[in-house]
Amino acid sequence: QKEVEQDPGPLSVPEGAIVSLNCTYSNSAFQYFMWYRQYSRKGPELLMYTYSSGNKEDGRFTAQVDKSSKYISLFIRDSQPSDSATYLCAMSKGNQFYFGTGTSLTVIP
Amino acid sequence: KAGVTQTPRYLIKTRGQQVTLSCSPISGHRSVSWYQQTPGQGLQFLFEYFSETQRNKGNFPGRFSGRQFSNSRSEMNVSTLELGDSALYLCASSLVPGQNTGELFFGEGSRLTVL
């Protein structure tokens, strides 16, 4: 079993929709939880990170962590075509990072 | 501020050859890590360097090696290439290792195709 599991999608939504992306993990030692966005032919870029359980909001993006269920989510409100990308969840313990396989998202105008 | 620079961006090799990839981290960043990205496996950790020392190594065979120079630039080498080594190789830099804020800054990657 992989330490981080992520549904690869692909996910296709109309512009303006609310998008929910999710990951589960098995290791309770993970300390930081992150979401990266990767456009085609580009490297991943950090979107959000959080340390504790609960919600963290940044504009149209909300990251949610539930440590008791070992489950993290990223919500995108009012999705835009420019949000079309692959979204990677990541977790860290110590200075080692573990990534999900990524969910491909397409927002249709 | 310049980002992480990786060269070459694209390369094609044949089985049995070797390849060297280069990474220049963001100025001031001293930690460099390397990842292999494939569609089926996602991002897999190769190794991490700080102050010219390898601090962590992922579960890859000895054909994969790397090093870091005194100016923090890093190279990784893959010898005796196999078809399965075809992937996007990503370099990421951060200020110092153990900076557990998730702030890994990635380059655009080197896409290796092995024929």
- Biggest sheet statistics of chain A: 6 strands, mixed
> Which value, in Å, is the CA radius of gyration of chain A?
13 Å
Largest interface: A-B, 25 and 28 residues
- Overall form of chain B: globular
Residues in helices of chain A, as a percent range: under 10%
Which regions of chain A contain 5 or more consecutive residues with pLDDT less than 50? none
Describe the protein's topology.
The complex is a heterodimer of chains A (109) and B (115).
Chain A: E1 4-6, E2 11-14, E3 19-25, E4 32-38, E5 45-50, E6 54-58, E7 61-66, E8 71-76, E9 85-93, E10 96-99, E11 103-108
Parallel strand pairs in A: 2-11
Antiparallel strand pairs in A: 1-3, 3-8, 4-5, 4-9, 6-7, 7-8, 9-10, 9-11
Chain B: E1 5-7, E2 10-13, E3 19-24, E4 31-38, E5 42-50, E6 53-57, E7 64-68, E8 74-78, E9 87-94, E10 105-106, E11 110-114
Parallel strand pairs in B: 2-11
Antiparallel strand pairs in B: 1-3, 3-8, 4-5, 4-9, 5-6, 7-8, 9-10, 9-11
In short:
With 109 residues, chain A is mainly beta.
Can you tell me about this structure?
The complex is a heterodimer of chains A (109) and B (115). Chain A is mainly β. In chain A, 0% of the residues lie in helices and 58% in strands. In chain A, a hairpin with a 6-residue loop joins strand 4 and strand 5. Chain A starts with a strand and ends with a strand. Chain B is an all-beta fold and 115 residues long. Helix content of chain B is 0%, strand content 52%. In chain B, the strands form two sheets. In chain B, strands 2, 4, 5, 6, 9, 10 and 11 form a seven-stranded mixed sheet that branches. A four-stranded antiparallel sheet of chain B has the order 1-3-8-7, with no helix packed on it. In chain B, a hairpin with a 5-residue loop joins strand 7 and strand 8. The chains are: A mainly beta (109), B mainly beta (115). The interface between A and B is medium-sized, with 25 and 28 residues.
